[in-house]
Design goal:
eight-stranded mixed β-sheet; Ig-like domain-containing protein; transmembrane helix; Surface_Rcpt/Adhesion_Mol
């Protein structure tokens, strides 16, 4: 400690003090300033206190007073400024100003950090503030001490002591409080589930906040409501750690006797910490915990399909429960455990179901912790529609003029609806098909379609092929093939199939090409047209014979067409515009093949058609004859020729 310079006179500088009893309220402002009086000088040490008390008892009264703030708050690393204000102007030539620091507490020793008189001033070199403090002279009204880069070691009482030869000694004290904002809190929940059957509070989560000063506080919350220690229900364990930097870290562990409702609760911790002038708070992230509890109910339901079940569907049956973790689940069908089925996430999957899978489905759950067992069941019915059965069996043969009855039935768990169709058109509704006086036009394939109106997706169908048997029917035609050549066509309708033959007048049989068209057969032959032609087409099956003769005259010959037939039916056909007919004949033939004109059996009909190019005579022996008008494709009777 540097000795204070001696004052002029015969002995050491003696200070007279004011009597303590008057309050200097005017010197105390809103900042809580303190007025140091003679009695406060006791802080300077026991020896000074005894001396000053003796002077006070002797009647010495000092007139100088010092005003200082009670406390200066500063963030760690910032700078602090401590003003020391005098109650009256002082003569700088008769005043000594000294600054001291000491730890809080009356018994703590003080250490001088700065000295100033009218001739000299210096900073003590052996203090922790030596290279960080500086003084600002506020004139005769006071001065200020500043400390830069404030650390936790600066959290001390700083004393400003003023000695005046004329006004005595006075001093004031300011305490520096250092603050540091802690880091953002972290919270960590238990990774394993917590069972509600635990008798003692279980660890829920840990909250940690690091590097705060002063020590931060931690409060736990559940759904916004603070949690306090409660024996057997809530327990909060707090541990403080002083870091090497002097800052304080705090971690808090929450233990709780959980309930089932806590599965949806939000937990978090709140950290409160002090800053200069206020207390601040910050919340940690909110967390949920995993609560284990036994199931109290079980429910089995059909998840898909939504409506009725039919064969071929995929059925999902879910087993719902409120247990956590998921208990052991077992599915049963008609009281038999299902072991080879697919169960995913409490859902039983049945693919491509059949009627045999109808019945009672039961779900049983077993809690491995509480050993409780619960079950629920439901009925599932799988609807079906069997393949259609058509009688008589296809193909079915009938004779012309007969009657027949066909039925179409399909076994189903639901009411059915049946329609009969032929050639894509609906004939009738109902499962019975009646045909009367059957003709060749009734031959073909009949389809019966069976559906279930109350459930979409169930559908089946059957078919019946009807063949109408009888003697063959012939339709003949011809067309130019090329220059000097003609193609003769013979269409035969018959069941069973007929043997077809082309015959010249001399009895010679011709080679032909035959094409099957369903139940019909087309035979074609190509001949050179160098003279009049007369060719017969004959068809024969087990039910009879039919024939027709084509007579084609040369272009220079004019003759009346004649027809010859043992049965006595003759039809004459005249084709106009031979060149156009040669191009369109085939098309018109196929369009016309189902249209027929009956021929009388009582005698022969003659038909003559002349043009400027040629005369054609055709003699036809047939049941039906048709004249194709080449230009317009119109059908005309012989009487209209």
């Amino acid at each position: 400690m540097v000795d204070m310079p001696a004052a002029s006179g015969d002995g050491p500088l003696l200070l007279s003090l004011l009597e303590f009893g008057d309050a200097f309220a005017g010197m105390l402002g809103a900042r809580g300033q303190v007025v140091a009086r003679g009695a406060d000088i006791g802080r300077a040490g026991e020896e000074d206190r005894k001396r000053l008390v003796g002077e006070r008892e002797a009647g010495g009264i000092g007139q100088l007073q010092v005003s200082m703030e009670d406390q200066v708050n500063v963030f760690l690393g910032h700078f602090a400024e401590i003003p020391c204000m005098f109650s009256k102007p002082v003569d700088p030539h008769s005043v000594i100003i000294q600054w001291f620091s000491k730890a809080p507490g009356d018994s703590s020793p003080k250490q001088r950090i700065f000295y100033k008189d009218h001739t000299t001033s210096f900073t003590e070199k052996d203090t922790i503030q030596a290279d960080r403090i500086s003084m600002f002279d506020l004139g005769s009204g006071g001065m200020a001490l500043t400390i830069k880069n404030v650390g936790l070691q600066d959290e001390l009482d700083f004393i400003c002591q003023v000695d005046s030869m004329s006004d005595g000694r006075a001093e004031g004290i300011t305490r520096i409080s250092v603050f540091h904002k802690p880091e953002f809190p972290t919270i960590k929940s238990e990774t394993t589930g917590i069972h509600i059957i635990n008798e003692e509070p279980s660890k829920i989560a840990t909250c940690e906040v690091k590097n705060g000063y002063p020590t931060p506080n931690i409060t736990w919350y559940r759904n916004g409501i603070p949690l306090q220690d409660s024996p057997g229900e809530v327990s909060v364990d707090i541990r403080q750690t002083k870091e090497s930097s002097g800052l304080v870290s705090v971690d808090s562990t929450l233990k709780l006797k959980v309930m089932k409702e806590d599965k949806d609760a939000m937990f978090y911790c709140e950290v409160s910490y002090s800053t200069p002038g206020e207390t601040r708070m910050v919340e940690s992230p909110h967390i949920k915990i995993t609560v284990h509890y036994p199931a109290t109910f079980v429910e089995v339901l059909k998840e898909s399909p939504k409506g009725q079940v039919k064969e071929g569907d995929t059925v999902y049956i879910r087993c719902n429960h409120d247990g956590n973790p998921a208990p052991e689940i077992t599915f049963y069908h008609n009281n038999e455990e299902l072991t080879n089925t697919l169960v995913v996430d409490n859902r039983l999957e049945l693919h491509n179901v059949t009627r045999s899978q109808s019945g009672t489905y039961k779900c049983t759950i077993f809690d491995l912790t509480s050993y409780d067992e619960n079950e629920d069941e439901m009925e599932i019915y799988v609807n079906f529609l069997d393949p259609a059965v058509v009688l008589p069996i296809s193909p079915h043969i009938v004779s012309e003029g007969e009657n027949m009855k066909a039925t179409c039935n399909a076994l189903s768990s639901l009411s059915t609806h049946t329609v009969w169709m032929k050639d894509g058109e609906q004939l009738l509704e109902g499962h019975v098909l009646n045909l009367s006086n059957i003709s060749r036009d009734d031959a073909g394939e009949y389809i019966c379609l069976v559906t279930t109106p109350s459930l979409d997706g169930l559908e089946t169908q059957g078919s019946l092929s009807i063949n109408v048997q009888g003697p063959p029917k012939i339709t003949v035609s011809w067309q130019n093939y090329a220059k000097d050549y003609v193609t003769l066509n013979c269409l035969v309708q018959s069941y069973p199939k007929s043997v077809m033959t082309w015959i010249l007048p001399n009895g010679q049989k011709l080679q032909s090409n035959e094409t099957e068209m369903g139940d019909d057969t087309v035979s074609m032959v190509t001949l050179r047209r160098d003279a009049s032609l007369s060719v017969s087409c004959q068809a024969e099956n087990e039910f009879g014979i039919d024939n027709a003769t084509l007579t084609i005259e040369s272009e220079t010959t004019s003759a009346d067409p004649t027809t010859e037939r043992g049965s006595g039916v003759i039809v004459a056909v005249l084709i106009v515009c031979v060149l156009l007919l040669a191009i369109l004949g085939s098309v018109l033939y196929f369009l016309y093949k189902k249209g027929k004109m009956p021929c009388g059996r009582s005698g022969k009909q003659d038909l003559t058609k002349k043009s400027n190019k040629d005369a054609i005579v055709m003699e036809m022996n047939c049941e039906e004859a048709v004249l194709l008008q080449g230009v317009n494709g119109d059908k005309k009777t012989p009487n209209n020729q």
